[in-house]
């Protein structure tokens, strides 16, 4: 190894470890369900994004297996050569129906989708108004486009309006976009989409909502844009197929001309192999399940509300959560990591989330209850929270 690289790695890794910012990864030994096995131990799992339990759904497993028998394990090419299977077309029609739009396009991941979609439309002569707490993939997608990035204070509509006015009146930019998460993954709060749409109309902003944590969760399962009835107002509806949908992939839903453009101009669609057939068939059925019934959605919210109520009664700070995403904000990074470590030792898998994923000094243990948890599992988790919270002086 080059000496320069070796020194760089050693110094920086050491620095992260000293600051308590180095994240250790624990492999899960088996399926990522409500109970997981880590290092041979059974733990109540409050860390997955498998909101509806679909990642381990029996019907979806069968569909994936049967599809693999017919189509094989890989798509074989990028979408534009001959990697577009009839299954991809059906998936995209289903996604458009799900989101209430004319058309949709799928990508290999939600992260990839933001790399693809923003830079297909925005360039160095444009500007993007971006919520300060937007997901890393949105930030990277914005950077890749080379547009001027203008952050606005999280969920602060006065700040957004002032910056939208300034950007559009400056004459410096051809196009201006406003971009936001639908549900903020670290706090569980919902974007103020009605106000954002109002501001966008006033200044003719392009609207872009990444609802990775909203689909399957908000709007009776249909997501945050439909929750507010704004499917005709939002230009880009982004989602992931890896969270509530339970598999892998990402998509953009919108007007037909937008999707047509992304099919000829978005680079991950043109230069990276299509989603594999077994996954595509499972995803399509997962979306249908969410459209057919709110049963899993209702169970998820029931469990989320139950866990929140229990944590608040114990005296924890759960921040501004409006969704099943339930942070326990501890603050100090090292204490947060110690808290999470003790929870795991006692039987609850709830990971610490610290800088740089969240701002410094706002370290938290994030809880993601799912539709697959039982009340008994949640009661056990709350008892462990009480014990560890008192032990570490986080609660009285
Ligand atoms: C998780 C997440 C992504 C990434 O989705 P993947 O499908 O896991 O790549 C993108 N955007 C937001 C807002 C997310 O929360």
TrEMBL record:
<dbReference type="GO" id="GO:0008890">
    <property type="term" value="F:glycine C-acetyltransferase activity"/>
</dbReference>
<dbReference type="InterPro" id="IPR015422">
    <property type="entry name" value="PyrdxlP-dep_Trfase_small"/>
</dbReference>
<dbReference type="InterPro" id="IPR001917">
    <property type="entry name" value="Aminotrans_II_pyridoxalP_BS"/>
</dbReference>
<dbReference type="InterPro" id="IPR004839">
    <property type="entry name" value="Aminotransferase_I/II_large"/>
</dbReference>
<feature type="domain" description="Aminotransferase class I/classII large">
    <location>
        <begin position="42"/>
        <end position="382"/>
    </location>
</feature>
<dbReference type="InterPro" id="IPR015424">
    <property type="entry name" value="PyrdxlP-dep_Trfase"/>
</dbReference>
<keyword id="KW-0663">Pyridoxal phosphate</keyword>
<dbReference type="InterPro" id="IPR010962">
    <property type="entry name" value="AONS_Archaea/Firmicutes"/>
</dbReference>
<comment type="similarity">
    <text>Belongs to the class-II pyridoxal-phosphate-dependent aminotransferase family.</text>
</comment>
<keyword id="KW-0808">Transferase</keyword>
<keyword id="KW-0012">Acyltransferase</keyword>
<dbReference type="InterPro" id="IPR050087">
    <property type="entry name" value="AON_synthase_class-II"/>
</dbReference>
<comment type="subunit">
    <text>Homodimer.</text>
</comment>
<protein>
    <submittedName>
        <fullName>Glycine C-acetyltransferase</fullName>
        <ecNumber>2.3.1.29</ecNumber>
    </submittedName>
</protein>
<dbReference type="Pfam" id="PF00155">
    <property type="entry name" value="Aminotran_1_2"/>
</dbReference>
<dbReference type="InterPro" id="IPR015421">
    <property type="entry name" value="PyrdxlP-dep_Trfase_major"/>
</dbReference>
